[in-house]
Design a protein that fits this description.
It contains 18 helices and 4 strands. It is mainly α. The N terminus is likely disordered.
């Protein structure tokens, strides 16, 4: 591993949120990201694989040491749960959204603490993570908005991994809360207009599928499995483009619809996950094709000018508000594709080299990022 990049090893595999730290650059405003790393559910067998990897593999252990240092620094922090998440549809300068962004830093801490426990088995990390699960599950009221509730994925994952450490009463309460989130997501999914085939719905499928896996509720996992194929058929085009890309004219939104599908496939059994990744709709569309469409924009072969022909009024409002990220013509940043290819590498190992290049790691690296270590633990290669 390149020591000079060790401190950046986690910079890419995160869910994009806009941050509370604001830097003003006339005439535009640049908002540093508060980033929530992808939470990865690991069962007992998978956690043991992870522990073995960090014990025996030099690259995996070096990555683990970076994560452990972060986790140690987070042990003293306290949860800041919200009853309502004010995020979707609001400008970055909206005061309620700023408050929400600050509170949602809890989610990144929860991911780090949960993964630190999974890798080490040290109860100090587990106990700290459990405090966040108790706080957020006791406060947040489900709304069925997948853009907002997608941010709560670390709570679901941490509960799933640490379930046995909660009391019986806590398990009953938390599981009822999770079921309610899934049920409301399914219900609101019946009434959507204009978002049935964009990243709203792929996030909804991931939420419901993950909760179904953790709670072993077949109705939820079946909903996600059926929805996965319907989404590929309705949202992805044979040439690899997506409805998100067409509507927003932004490669960042193309990714936003794909990543939840990649995570769902990762959680499936290995052969089933590979089959989902490659599955072709009658039109010829597939998740595999849409990931491949992104590749030349990630490796620098092509450049995409973002937002130029967006049809979304909110994008234009953000640009008019002076937010640099949403300025029409802003080039797509190849490094922002890192997370997508980390997940895709679970189904196509060639993308491990893509991740290494994006992270500035040696091309021969087996584990150019921590997420690829987690992939290995999940899939048992």
């Amino acid at each position: 591993m390149n020591r000079n990049t060790a401190s950046r090893l986690f910079a890419g595999f995160r869910l994009s949120l806009t941050a509370a730290v604001i830097v003003s650059l006339s005439p535009l405003h640049v908002y540093a990201d508060v980033e929530i790393r992808q939470a990865t559910f690991l069962n007992d067998t998978q956690r043991q694989r992870l522990a073995n990897l960090v014990a025996k593999d030099t690259e995996a252990r070096a990555l683990w040491k970076v994560l452990q240092t972060e986790a140690d620094a987070m042990l003293a922090a306290k949860p800041h749960p919200l009853t309502v998440i004010h995020y979707e549809g609001l400008l970055d300068t909206n005061p309620e959204r700023i408050t929400t962004r600050t509170a949602l830093t809890d989610m990144d801490r929860l991911v780090v603490l949960g993964q630190a426990w999974a890798a080490s088995g040290e109860t100090r990390y587990r106990d700290a993570a459990m405090a966040y699960v108790r706080a957020w599950s006791g406060a947040y009221v489900p709304t069925g908005n997948p853009i907002n509730e997608n941010k709560l994925e670390p709570v679901f994952v941490a509960y799933g991994m640490m379930r046995d450490a909660f009391s019986t009463d806590e398990r009953i309460r938390i599981q009822a809360w999770m079921r309610r989130i899934a049920e409301v997501e399914i219900e609101t999914g019946k009434n959507v207009k204009g978002t049935a085939q964009d990243n709203w719905h792929s996030k909804r499928l991931k939420i419901v599928g993950l909760i179904g896996r953790i709670l072993e509720k077949k109705a939820f996992t079946a909903y996600a499995a059926k929805g996965f194929k319907s989404y590929v058929e309705g949202s992805l085009l044979p040439d690899g483009r997506s409805q998100d890309l067409i509507k927003r004219d932004a490669m960042s939104y193309h990714q936003s619809g794909l990543k939840p599908l990649l995570v769902l496939a990762l959680y499936a059994a290995p052969e089933e996950g590979r089959a989902l990744y490659r599955w072709q709709a009658p039109s010829g569309a597939s998740l595999q094709n849409s990931v491949a469409y992104l590749l030349p924009y990630a490796d620098g072969t092509k450049i995409h000018a973002e937002w130029v022909n967006t049809r979304e009024p909110l994008d234009r409002q953000r640009a008019a508000a002076g937010i640099a990220y949403y300025q029409p013509g802003k080039p797509f940043d190849p490094k922002s594709a890192t997370e997508t290819f980390e997940f895709a590498s679970a189904f196509d190992p060639r993308f491990t080299g893509t991740v290494a290049k994006l992270r500035g790691e040696p091309a021969t690296s087996r584990f150019p990022s921590w997420q690829i270590v987690l992939n290995d633990a999940v899939r048992g290669r």
